[in-house]
Amino acid sequence: MAVSRNDKAAKSEFQLRAFSSVFIVLIVLGAIHYGSLAWTIVASLIALTSLAEYYRLLSRVKGIRLSPGVGYIFSLIFLIAAIQEKPQPIMLAMILSLCVCGVFTVEIFKRQLSKGNSNAVYNAGGIISGVLYITVPWVCMIMLRSYLIGREILMTLFFCTWGCDVGAYIGGKAFGTIKLCEFVSPGKTVQGFVAGIIGSLLASAGAIYYFGLDREMIAIGFICGIAGQIGDLVESLIKRETGQKDSGGLIPGHGGMLDRFDSILFNGLITYLVLRIVL
Fold it and tell me: Could you give the CA distance from residue 197 to residue 23 in angstroms, rounded to a whole number?
């Protein structure tokens, strides 16, 4: 029986996604394993690329013109601060305040040069939301690596995130009948959501056993199982509102960098906050 073109295309797409996934896993885990510098470089590249994709998405909305350079500059300041020392809350607030001031200053010149055209509020909102939504979580994950067991925590974080993705995909395909958020992501189901939580918990249990971590680290499994899927839905929401299918086309079979690392943003941020309180 001849194989249809659709079957061949689907098989080729699956192989491409699988190859890209393996490559990403090796890069991420290798950087985490080799130390803070390697991880900082990789995390910073992912953060800045994702941020560029986010700003491009927002720029597709009619009437919104951003000043992405301001966001890149202050994101670099955040990332450098994470390398040098743990940023203090007051310092983070000051950097964000300066970022807003920078955007407003740019808008003054834009309005003057364009003879009355500016969008300061939308510009500031778009730039700041990108820094908060993308850069800050990656800064948190860079700082996690400096913990005594930072390597193990970060690897567990990514294992749980990927375990959740795999569990949600398999569970949704096999048992998915009840739509979760059909107006945000039509393919997501309640059964897939539950399977994602189970996949994340299994991954955290395996990591705890392999790395010899405390049983309390099972909390990372709960965080990734729930927050990660919300993070995935958030990116779907952004793409819906901007009318785009993917955030970019950098990663074959996956779309953009933000498409591939959307779940880890919520997971990394919340895990860092929880561990900061506990440790």
Answer: 25
